[in-house]
Amino acid sequence: MSRKTNEKQLIIREWNWIYENLNKFDLISHVKQPIINSATIGQKVDHIKAKNFINLHTKIFEEESFSICLSDESLICFYYIYDKQNEIVGHNLMYIPFPIDEDNGTGEETARAKYIRVDYDQEGHKDVIHTRVHLHVGVYKTNFRIPISHYLTPKDFLYLILKYIYHSEDKFIDKLIVNKERKNLLTEMEADKFRLLLGE
Asked: Which among 31, 136, 142, 144 counts the fewest CB atoms within 10 Å?
């Protein structure tokens, strides 16, 4: 089986693993099985903006268009795009915090600051300033993007959220770390600059 075929199967396998192992993660309350089409996996949801943060969170929650719902009703959304060879050509991965946490006395502004989105976007690519894969932090009007060298899988993204937002102990989330071949998606110029290398 070729690497190109394995890319699509890898995403399906990891997503299904999270679904089947839901009970091993205290912070996860619900996992949706992946919606698999010929060119996509998951459901596309609108990008969160400051003015629609609460309404979009509510809509995604009520329509169950999320991929994972955490115990605090924060949401994780996975959406992958494939070409005809089943190679990943784009993704949109989002962590949408629950807008109001009365127990901790935090509100929408705090939640918006914790919003995380990792895009894999080939069409908008501009050397260095808009790398193919990049991380957005917070809901702001700035174009702040942190370059990432490769696409992220469901386990990668879930680990990122559980470790760095929820500070989960390694013994609970180490099962999400998987050694796998990763295709470098940075140009030569981008690889010489600041970037994130995950799992290497």
From this structure: 142
